[in-house]
Structures are given as C-alpha cells and as structure tokens.
Specification:
With about 400 residues, this protein is of the alpha/beta class. It contains 11 helices and 15 strands. It folds into 2 domains: about 5-105, Response regulator (Rossmann fold); about 140-394, Heat Shock Protein 90, CATH 3.30.565.10.
Amino acid sequence: MTKILVIEDETILREEVVAWLTLEGYTVLSAEDGVAGVAAALHHQPDLIVCDILMPRLDGYGVLIEVRSDQEIADTPFIFVTARAAYEDMRKGMDLGADDYLTKPFTRLDLLQAIQTRLAKKALQEQAQQRAIAELQQALARTNENQLLNAKLISMFSHDFANSLTSILLANSLLRDYADRMDEKRRLTHLNRIGASARLLLQMLDDLVVVARMETGSLEVELVALNITEFFERIVQDFQSIYGERHPLILESQFTTTTKLDTRLLRQIATNLISNAIAHSPPESAIHIRLAPQAEACVITVHDQGIDTLHVEKLHLFAAFQHNSPEDAANTGLGLAIIQQAVDLHGGLIEIENHADSGTTVTVTLPIQPRILAVADGKHMRGQVIGGSILDHD
C-alpha cells in the first residue's frame, strides 16, 4: 500500500490532510515539524512526502535538502504546501528539487490530484529505469557473449591452425629428407596432404572474415550455378588427404543436375560439418556424407559415430549469433555458429538426431530457389525465411 508522509506544524490542517488521505486508502504517517519529519522519512521511507515550508526547528527547505541528500529516499516525490505564494519562494523550492507546490488554502481535490500526478510520474520513471536497466543488462550479456565467443574463436583457431601447419611441416620434412626412398604414390600422398592442409588454413581465415561480417550484418548471399557433387568431392578429398588414415570419409550423391547456391556459404557449411564430425568421432570410425535432392531442395546429411556429451551439447546449441540467452552462447562452437548463420541466410533448416548406439546425424536442407535473408544498412532484415530452426530427435 502507498505510504504518504505529511509534515505540517498546524495541528488542525495536519489532521485534516491525514483524514483525507486515509479515506483514499493511503497509509498515512505524520510529523509536527521538520526534524521529526526527516526522522520519519528516513525510518519509514514513504512513497511521497507532503511538507509545509514554515515550521519550527527545521523548515521545509531544510527537510527537502535532507531528503534529497539521502540515497535511500532521494527520489521520493516531494510536494510543498504553504501560504507563501511568492514566485521567489516557489522558484527556490523547485531549484532544491521539489516536485510540486500547493498554496494554502487548497482543497481536498487539489491535494489528491497533485498526489496522483506525482505518483503516476514516479511510476513511469521507475518503468523507464527498469527498461534502461534491462537494456543495459542485455547489452552487457551480449558483450560478455561476444568476448566468450572471441575467446573460443581464438582457442579453436589456434588449435586447428597449429594442426594444419604441423601437417604441412611434417609432410614437407618427409619429402625433403626421404623423397628418394619413397615410391611415387607415397610422395603424392604427402603432396596432397600439404595442399589440403594449406586449403584448410585458408578456410580458417575465411571463417574469421565470415564471423566479422556476421557481427557487422554485412554478410550477403551470392547465388551461382554449381555441380554440388563435384563441389563436395573436392572438399571431401581435402579432408581425406589429411584425416583419411584415421577417419574414412564416404560421400554419396544422388544429384545429377546443377543447382544455385552461395558457394562460399556452402563451403562453410560443408567444411564445418565435416570438421565437427571428425573432431568428435572415435578413431577409425567412418564419416558418411550424403547429398540428395528433395522437393526443390538440397539435402546434406553428415553422420558420425560421436556420442559424447560435449558433442551432443554443441550440436544442440547452434545459435551463437542468434542465441536467446547467455547460456546458449556459452556452449556454442564457432564452426556450428557459422553453419547456422549460413543456413539461415539461405532460408534453410537444420535437423539433428543423436542415438547412444548409432552416433549423430546432422541434416541441412537448403532450398534450391531460396528465399534469402536480405541485407540493408549493415543489418539483417528477415524476409519470408523457411525454417532456421532446430529439430531434436532423441
């Protein structure tokens, strides 16, 4: 219930105001002078103060100064009531922080209207403050998420970059020191590994560029005609050159015609899906990649044997750049976030199936004639996007 403090040295007027406000349903406190009024305000922290100016021991201006100087009650609405109606007196009160000014004699209606107006204004101010606090909290959360994502980016980039460089250096060293003892097939294997590793390094650099464009909202879709089977064959061959001894990669395609997709985004989807599958699959287990046309769409399926908890958690948290809460972003891998954004830009859909006995399957469906996410003024504006959601089948 709203508490109002009435500070007035005239007993009859004070009791009359208290009676008016009590009948209106307010909880009313009263004080007979400024010193008692300040003590009551500090102790009870009222929602509004009605205060006379001319009072013994401490006048109304002194009360107002005491109230505005205390952090706990500084924002309390404050209404002066006084017989002093000179402009200078009113100006002084307003300069000290009074919210309103009633001149004696005043009616019950005058007082109630002034109180209701000040309480309503206070409520609006509190709502605005709450919105501002919520916006600041959201901005802070986004900042923390971006910092966390950048930290993950650096960690993942450093690890994968180091692996590819190591592969290049080792293959180069073997070719340099033992080329005369190798047969042609073995030399070709090492050369292919060097080339594939170099291309993956370039892909990592491209990931950084894509991430930067995602954050600035300047990532656009450029559709070109391509043979999707040949496109995936080149990507799979690169991974096979590097990881083939540990993870056989099996590509199956039912496509016999060309389709229009963004090759850069498609490469992001393909390489990051395959990289994620390799990273979480047991040694010697195969990675299956399937391509199939389906109702004017291209369906890409990557199946692996990864069933560990981290793998499953990461697969269910694609939306690093479209997350709903800080908890989502805190567990999302960079590569998976890129996949989600690339799929969304095509107006596509992602589905996930994970089973303890058969591993994990990620299916990406891209419309062959996609309704694309438009880009304007550095910000994404959604058109009629198909999907963009994640379906979970346990």
